Amino acid sequence: MFKKILIATRGEIALRIHRACREIGVKTVAVHSVADANAMHVRMADEAVCIGPSVAKESYLNKAAIISAALITDADAIHPGYGFLSENADFAEMVSEHGMTFIGPEAKMIRFMGNKIEAKKMMKDAGIPILPGSDGDVNTVSEALSIADSIGYPVIIKAVSGGGGRGMKVVRTKQDMIEAFDMARKEAEAAFDDGSVYIEKFLENPRHIEFQVIADNQGNVIHLGDRDCSLQRNNQKVLEETPSPVISDELRDKMGGLVCDAIRKIGYTNVGTVEFLYENGQFYFIEMNTRLQVEHPVTEMITGIDIVTQQIYIAAGEPLIYKQKDVVFRGHAIECRINAEDPETFIPSPGKVGLWHVPGGQWVRVDSAVYSGYTIPSNYDSLIAKLIVFGSTRKSCLMRMRRSLEEFVIEGVKNTVPLQQRIIDTKDFIEGKYNIHWLENFIGKYPKD
Length: 449
Prior knowledge:
The protein has 3 domains: about 80 residues, 3-Layer(aba) Sandwich (Rossmann fold), CATH 3.40.50.20; about 70 residues, ATP-grasp fold, A domain (Dna Ligase, domain 1), CATH 3.30.1490.20; about 240 residues, 2-Layer Sandwich (D-amino Acid Aminotransferase, Chain A, domain 1), CATH 3.30.470.20. About 35% of the residues lie in helices and about 25% in strands. Helix 1 links the parallel strand 1 and strand 2.
């Protein structure tokens, strides 16, 4: 087992990793920018190193500074968390080249899955269903028109690299394609320094459902069920739940087994998430995230398995202690992401936090690095807390979430607690009748009805 792990991220996930390390007797090193000098993960870690100014490019994205911090503190492993360098294959290689362990999959697997076209090919060969579309990147409008004609409109143009909705355009007619193709390529180039795009069939009303997997270095693979992440705004998840209210146990078992077989075939190790669009009883692969997910706590709630601890054990070369038969799904869990944003305009609201009171009680978990008097910096993502609750049924889980949101007190900055309260009180959400477009439509009416 490792003696000391450097945590190469910030915020709630840095604190989450620190706690996992402490619980298995591993010391931690926090890295931080100037803006995060008083951050909670910095205060709690055994050691802390300032790696640069507030700008992420000069601190949390500064590979050399992070490697140097690990070397001077004698860390023997680096955990990237999520965001920043967590899916950067070059960084993973640098960690290994300097004699340390990257807590995640191999660099080559990160690189494969980071290229959406290569990922689709690899998963298709491994038996995972994919959407009809181009076999590779599309270079001209005429080629794009030909592909769209063959698979039928509507289609969607996507960036080969990256995500988050950038370089993505829905195309419903030939004229739309002529107008959107070059625009998508320019957006992709600006966002990812790679203007390559590909084309897929566009589904009108799908769910976004993902499967959590864990694989060790001895060929053992398990899945921890599905998560429904369909409630999204600008392609960013807002609320997640498990299990999905529209997936039967039989289909869940079937897809989980299919995903495990694919992970085993491609030789993937550590923690990962296979993401799908789901419509009319069919799953279609969209991408694989080669890192810890923001929404991992809902899976931990219903399985009792500590995913972060498993990441560390596997990276240290230890075998999985679980077989698939040991994974038991109990009850229901929901996560609400709480952002420091205006709940109506979604304009970020950095600043000093006044009163901070988190909900409590049985089966309520709050992952956050915020405290009363903390100043939320303007330089980073606006996520300030994740409220996760468990219930023996989806109905009891919703009741507990409703009560927990009522207890959450955040003064000094605007936040999205009111939006989450409105979402869980809607008839559609209560009945589980939503898709990836539902929240955008809801926000269009919010806060009128």
